[in-house]
Design a protein that fits this description.
Belongs to the Psb28 family. The protein is an alpha+beta fold and about 90 residues long. The chain is built from two helices and four strands, in the order αββββα. About 25% of the residues lie in helices and about 30% in strands.
Length: about 90
Amino acid sequence: MFEQLKSIERFNSFRNRFSKVLRLSDSEGEIAMEPSGIKFIFGGPEGDDLARVDCTIELDREDHWERFMRFMHRYAEANGMAYGEPPAET
């Protein structure tokens, strides 16, 4: 779940023509993947402000998983975040 993205404002203009490819760029280069599910969550007083984007990604290959995790750890560190599992539902 991404609540803040540098390009979140751009998603607002592309929500009706989303290319179905998520591009992640870091020091290793670019990762291009197609999410298996994506939700655009809107809020605000008029209900038309993009609040966040939820992406579901399925990675079957170990090398793709490792590359994605390296990206996520760098992203988290650069943005004052931490990677972790969501709390278990009770």
